[in-house]
Amino acid sequence: MMVVELITGRTLDQGATVEEKLGEKYFNAVNYIELDEESFKQLGLKEGDRVKVTSDFGEVVVFAKKSDLPKGVAFIPMGPYANMVIDPSTDGTGMPQFKGVKAKIEKTTERVKTIKELLEAI
Amino acid sequence: MEDIVCTFCGSVCDDGEFDVEKRRVKRFCRLGSSKFAEKERIKAPMVEGKEVSYEEAIDYAVEILVNAKHPLLYGWASTVNEAIRLGVILAEKLGGVYDQCASVCHAPGVLAVIEEGLPGGTLGSIKNRAEVVIFWGANPAEAHPRHGLRYSITAKGLLVKDRKQRKVIVVDVRPTKTAKMADIFVQIKPGYDYAILSALRAIISGNADVVPKEVGGVSKEKLIELAEIMKNAKYGAVLYGLGVSQSRGRDRNVENAIKLIQLLNRTTRWIIWPMRGHYNVVGAGEVPAWEVGYSYAIDFSRGYPRFSPAEFSAVEVLNRKDCDAALIVASDPVAHFPASAVKYLKEIPVIQIDPYPNMTTLVSKVVIPSAVYGIEAEGSTYRMDGIVLRVKKILETNYWTDEKILEEMLKRVEKLKG
């Protein structure tokens, strides 16, 4: 288990599939978390393993992906998976905190939910 | 067909070529190409999963809206100004809330602009004049793929002739694809934008002595180097993204960045501008601004417009359960809102107007498919820098436009509400 600072954002894959949200390509574009190499080792992860992300606001299971992020920072593409764990409070601005949310990451054997299952679980 | 205008991102590229037979667009990026590719559509209007005619779906939708005490009308970033105009009138007639996608995107910047103003410029001025371009919390290589080529990185301008004459700086938490194209990459710790902007202001105003050795993961030397580049540029542009407006500080980060630009403008010329996402998210704010005075989070329940993002932004309205029906136009809040807001959307009757099935379709009682602007319908949009462009119709369709659907809804609402 480790604690990271979670950020979310656009990616090219997410953008290119955003008008096909119920398809496989969009599912693959938004259902993962990027972590740095050292965190990968520390959690005993292989590319494509699943991790459970838990914040004060919810939890979600996603696939793990290696990236060149700085240690302690994790990234999930914007979309339904990220939105399960981001901070919904807006501090009066109307804008939830999509970036900079503390989250706990652990390896899991739980399945990654499909988009429809995710919606049912909300 | 030539000079096709793209209706994907805020860059609204206007130089595409469309091959009608192959149904393929040339010159656009991967995002633009995906926009013009054929994909699954909502086949017909539906009420509770059953196919109906446009008229029946509109009747049913209007009944829901007219009987609601406080409906939320949300979306608007991927449609044209003509449709948005009707949406604002509809919100007023219904005594509901008008909010748009910027409220989960660049709207904190609007709050900053209300306080500070916006020293801005067009994309053309960036291309022709900006010898220093700073992308702050923005990653155009993935979000606006041709922005760099056409305006801000490799663009060939009148005074700044090529890439060699333009210094590109990226300030970001991650080593993004854009960071890899930059001359200087300043990697910061998440949530430290405000502190770094304050440090730069201190250095530029001659108070470097108050700046500690390191701010937000950036050394003082690097900050001084950055400040010198900014001070010495004849014309510079800070183009900021959601890294600034969606992280800790939100509107205050933007406010601090504008203050930095104001300071630079005492001795040289700098502009600051948000990298707006959807092709007409600017219109979703400009149109209500010229109609009722505000650009988002507008409530009409008292019969006159009130602006208050803490109360009337869509996420706040949903988190507080302060609406009893929702009309979602050209947007997918179920995919892009926090789970708490989605939970409430699942409990109330939702009407969706959109060309494509998405997550909001799955929770909608009434689904009304529409034509795709820029492909099947024409209209006017605001590019990210506020320049109005007319998007074209290149293919025939039987789908109704957002404008026609909203016009029919408005007629019925006016009849019922008087």
In brief:
The complex is a heterodimer of chains A (122) and B (418). Chain A is an alpha/beta fold and 122 residues long.
CATH architecture tag of the largest domain in chain B? 3-Layer(aba) Sandwich
Second-tier CATH architecture of chain A: Beta Barrel
User: What fraction of the residues of chain A are assigned to beta strands by DSSP?
Assistant: 25-35%
Q: How would you classify the quaternary structure? A: heterodimer
Whole-angstrom Rg of chain B: 22 Å
Protein chain pair with the most extensive contact, residues per chain = A-B, 45 and 67 residues
Measured as a percent range, the helix fraction of chain A is 10-25%
Order of helices and strands of chain A: EHHEHEEEEH
Strand order across the largest sheet of chain A: 2-4-3-6-1-5
What's the CATH first level of chain A?
Answer: Mainly Beta
Mean pLDDT rating of chain A? 95
Q: What is the number of helices of chain A? A: 4
Structural class of chain A: alpha/beta
Report the C-alpha radius of gyration of chain A, rounded. Answer: 14 Å
> Based on DSSP secondary structure assignment, what is the total number of beta strands of chain A?
6
For the terminal residues of chain A, how far apart are their CA atoms?
A: 25 Å
Q: What is the number of beta strands of chain B?
A: 20
Q: Roughly how many Å apart are the termini of chain B?
A: 45 Å
Outline type of chain B? globular
Number of helical elements of chain B: 18
Helices and strands in order:
The complex is a heterodimer of chains A (122) and B (418).
Chain A: E1 2-9, H1 12-16, H2 24-30, E2 32-36, H3 37-42, E3 50-55, E4 58-67, E5 73-77, E6 101-108, H4 115-121
Parallel strand pairs in A: 1-5, 2-4
Antiparallel strand pairs in A: 1-6, 3-4, 3-6
Chain B: E1 17-19, E2 24-26, H1 30-36, E3 46-47, E4 50-51, H2 54-67, E5 72-75, H3 81-94, E6 97-100, H4 107-116, H5 123-129, E7 132-136, H6 140-143, H7 147-152, E8 167-172, H8 177-180, E9 184-187, H9 193-204, E10 214-215, E11 218-219, H10 220-232, E12 235-240, H11 242-245, H12 251-264, E13 269-274, H13 283-292, E14 298-299, E15 306-307, H14 309-312, H15 314-319, E16 326-329, H16 333-336, H17 339-345, E17 350-354, E18 366-369, E19 379-382, E20 388-391, H18 402-417
Parallel strand pairs in B: 5-6, 5-16, 7-8, 7-12, 8-9, 12-13, 16-17, 17-18
Antiparallel strand pairs in B: 1-2, 3-4, 3-18, 6-14, 10-11, 14-15, 19-20
Helix pairs in contact in B: 2-18, 3-13, 3-18, 4-12, 9-10, 9-12
